[in-house]
Write a structure and sequence with these properties.
alpha/beta, 312 residues
Length: 312
Amino acid sequence: MPGGGWLVYLGIGNPASARLSSVVRGTMTNVDQFESVFRAAAKEIYVPRPVALRRVLCLHDLDGPELDAFEACVRKFLEVLREAIDWSFVSATEFTDLDALLKQMEERSPDLILTYRGLLSEGRGWVYSLGEYLDVLTQTAPFPVLVVPHPADEDAWVGRQPELCRTMALTDHLAGESRLVDWAHRFTKVEGGVLFLAHIEDEFTFERFIQAISKIPAIDTEVARETVQTQLLKEPTDYIESCRKVLLDRGEHIETHGIVRMGKRLDAVRSLVSQHRVDLIVMNTKDDDQLAMHGLAYPLAVELRGVAILML
C-alpha cells in the first residue's frame, strides 16, 4: 500500500474518515488532502473488448468410444460460443514429449486450448495435482486453457450432458479486470445464462494489516478497520455496477450478479461454487513475477474436480 496519508484516502466518503483525519491532522499537507479526495473520486470503469474464438484445440489421450463420448460432451458444453468453431482434436500420445507437444500447439496457434485434469498422467488417481503435462501447459502456453473434468472421474461430464449456463469471473482485485470480465461474458449464454462477478477479499491478509496498524499509537484501530474495509469492498462493487451498465447500454440482458465479500478465499469459493451451481470459473493464472500458477487458481483447479476452469 502507498505511504503518506493512505488511510485518509481509503476513508474518503465514509463518516469515520473525519475522525481518522483528526488523528493524523498536522502531519498532512493541503496537497495530501487534495490528492486523497481526487483518488477517492476516481473509479475504474468497465471497457469491453471483443473476444474472438474461432479455433479450439482439444488435447486428449483417449480413443474409440471414450473419445467419441468426450467430443460430444465438449461440443455440447461450448454451444454457448454461438458461432462456427474450427475444432481440432489431437491426441497427446502422438508426441514423444511435452516439448514437441508445445511446439505443435504454437504452430496451430489456437484461440483456446481445451483439455482435462490428469492428461497423460500416471498419477491421475491422486487428487493432489493437475498432472505434469497440464501443470506445464497452463504456464507456458500463450493461449487460454480451459480445464474440464477427466472423462473417467466420477464427477465428469460423460453421461450427464453438460450445459454451460452459470459462469463466474473470480478474483481478489476485480476493479479494472476488463479482460477477465470479457472472457467470462463470452462464455455466458445470452438466453437463460447467469454471469457472476466475484471479488473475494482475503480476510487473513486484512487482519494482518489491521494488527500492524493496532501497534501504531497515532492511529485509531477501529476507525482504520472500518474505513479500510469499506473502501476495499466499495471499489469492486462500483466496478460491477459499471459492468452491468455497459451491458445494458449495449442492449444485452444477461442476468448479472455481483459478489463482493471478505472471507477465507478457498473456503469462500467452494461455498459460492456450490451455492450458485457454477459450471465454469474464469480466473487469471499467469503471474509475471513467478513461475508458479497465480493465486488461488491451482488449488481450485485441483480441488474442484467437477467444475470447468478457464485459465487466462
